[in-house]
């Protein structure tokens, strides 16, 4: 069925009923020819006259093996489909005072998401007066980006949107393939890491 729908997209040989066509391709001298002459040229080569751009004036045709042409078009469509793979974004939510256990649990999940090729949108949600801790939230997100440096790079630095401070991480393509090789940090990540991690000192 798919092949039939592809066939319907292109007119070939006697189905091309315009007076003249523009020939392109490697096996002809490119230019505008009467359609009857273009058909004769295709026939002499044991090939087909395929209309590849019907809306041009005059329509553009190619002399080629039609079955081979369809195969190449199908292959091209597959490649384009593969390139336009849906980008998956996984969200990870923190509170402004997330404890280490919760942080490490979410960090582990984020590593898995990035290794699978998904983007990670991490955010700190500020409830009520906790918006006063927005700097603390920013430090948390930057620490998160730093800890995931081998797996993802920062696509968007922390920004405050309403009650949420968001950071976006995109997977490093080489992360899955690269084994013990140290990952090269992007300058943008290095900049963010300058902010010191919050430390609490207990005096004995």
TrEMBL record:
Gene3D superfamilies: Translation initiation factor 3 (IF-3), C-terminal domain (3.30.110.10), Translation initiation factor 3 (IF-3), N-terminal domain (3.10.20.80). Residues 89-172 form the Translation initiation factor 3 C-terminal domain. It is found in: Cytoplasm. GO terms for molecular function: translation initiation factor activity. Residues 12-80 form the Translation initiation factor 3 N-terminal domain. Keywords: Cytoplasm, Initiation factor, Protein biosynthesis. HAMAP family: IF_3. IF-3 binds to the 30S ribosomal subunit and shifts the equilibrium between 70S ribosomes and their 50S and 30S subunits in favor of the free subunits, thus enhancing the availability of 30S subunits on which protein synthesis initiation begins. Belongs to the IF-3 family. PANTHER family: TRANSLATION INITIATION FACTOR IF-3 (PTHR10938), TRANSLATION INITIATION FACTOR IF-3, MITOCHONDRIAL (PTHR10938:SF0). Monomer. This is Translation initiation factor IF-3. It comes from Parabacteroides hominis. The lineage of its organism: Bacteria, Pseudomonadati, Bacteroidota, Bacteroidia, Bacteroidales.
């Amino acid at each position: 069925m798919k092949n039939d729908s592809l066939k319907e997209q292109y007119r070939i040989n006697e189905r091309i009923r315009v007076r003249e066509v523009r020939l392109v391709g490697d096996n002809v001298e490119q230019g505008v020819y009467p359609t009857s002459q273009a058909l004769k040229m295709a026939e002499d080569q044991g090939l087909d006259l395929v209309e590849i751009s019907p809306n041009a004036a005059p329509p553009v045709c190619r002399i080629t093996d039609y079955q081979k042409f369809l195969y190449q078009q199908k292959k091209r469509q597959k490649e384009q489909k593969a390139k336009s793979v849906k980008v998956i974004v996984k969200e990870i939510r923190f509170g402004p005072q997330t404890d280490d256990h919760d942080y490490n649990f979410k960090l582990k999940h984020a590593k898995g998401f990035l290794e699978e090729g998904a983007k990670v949108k991490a955010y700190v949600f500020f409830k009520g007066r906790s918006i006063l801790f927005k700097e603390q939230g920013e430090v948390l997100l930057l620490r998160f980006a730093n800890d995931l440096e081998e797996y993802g790079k920062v696509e968007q630095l922390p920004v405050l949107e309403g009650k949420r401070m968001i950071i976006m991480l995109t997977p490093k393509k080489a992360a899955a393939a690269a084994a013990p090789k140290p990952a090269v940090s992007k300058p943008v990540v290095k900049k963010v890491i300058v902010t010191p991690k919050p430390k609490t000192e207990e005096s004995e």
